[in-house]
């Protein structure tokens, strides 16, 4: 069995400015840096040691991975990037269309040169499955990605997924065994609290 922690990046300048930053990038704020350090404290307290670390190619994810792990020997993968919002990149978030339930923004951004929700789901699942299959068993991994990309991933691979809002540096703990994903918990390391815990079958 492989265990992996799928984590959102820390707060960025665009987050503060309420700008859409999918495929574009902006640096971590001082708070974002502290959030990533809180994640490292969480992992240290739990005695979690990573066999491998993977991150999106975007700066905010790479910096978060370094701060949360204390390491620089990570692998950058384009398949872990945030959803591309096309012409809406860098614009104010109030320009986003209404969310369409569990499919997020659906295909809205395709017209403007961006990705559909299915594009994001498929590339995230493909990327994460491939990197997991390449790892020895058992192993423990850290994967740092982005809010929309992570949400689309777990909606793709988990049948009864939690309806939660992911904070910056939220940590989702998964297991992967026999080609099956299982989401065990979601933690806010800044508040040091579990946002979601899977109920065990009795």
Distance between the termini: 22 Å
Tell me about the biggest sheet? 7 strands, mixed
The gyration radius over C-alpha positions equals 16 Å
Mean pLDDT: 95
Per the CATH scheme, the topology name is Rossmann fold
Task: Bin the strand percentage.
Answer: 15-25%
* Number of individual domains: 1
Number of strands: 7
The CATH superfamily name is Phosphoglycerate mutase-like
Structural class: alpha/beta
SSE series:
EHHEHEHEHEEE
Shape: globular
**Helix content class:** 25-40%
How many distinct helices?
A: 5
- Identify low-pLDDT runs: none
* CATH-scheme architecture: 3-Layer(aba) Sandwich
Oligomer state of the chains in this structure: single chain
- Largest sheet strand order: 3-2-4-1-5-6-7
The CATH first-level class comes to Alpha Beta
Properties at a glance:
Rossmann fold; seven-stranded mixed beta sheet; 5 helices; globular; 202 residues; 7 strands
């Amino acid at each position: 069995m492989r265990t992996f922690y799928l984590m959102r990046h820390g707060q960025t300048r665009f987050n503060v400015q309420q700008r859409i930053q999918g495929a574009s990038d902006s640096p971590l704020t001082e708070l974002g840096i502290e959030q990533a350090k809180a994640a490292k404290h969480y992992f240290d307290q739990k005695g979690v040691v990573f066999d491998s670390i993977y991150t999106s190619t975007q700066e905010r994810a790479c910096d978060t991975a370094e701060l949360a792990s204390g390491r620089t020997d990570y692998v950058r993968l384009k398949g872990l990037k945030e959803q591309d919002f096309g012409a809406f990149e860098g614009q104010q978030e109030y320009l986003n269309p209404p969310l369409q339930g569990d499919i997020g923004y659906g295909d809205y951004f395709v017209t403007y040169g961006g990705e559909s929700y299915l594009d994001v789901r498929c590339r995230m699942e493909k990327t994460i499955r491939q990197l997991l299959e390449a790892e020895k068993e058992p192993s423990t991994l850290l994967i740092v990605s982005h809010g929309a990309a992570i949400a689309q991933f777990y909606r793709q691979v988990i049948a009864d997924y939690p309806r939660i809002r992911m904070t910056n540096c939220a940590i989702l703990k998964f297991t992967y065994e026999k080609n099956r994903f299982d989401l065990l918990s979601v933690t806010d390391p800044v508040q040091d609290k579990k946002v979601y815990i899977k109920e065990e079958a009795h």
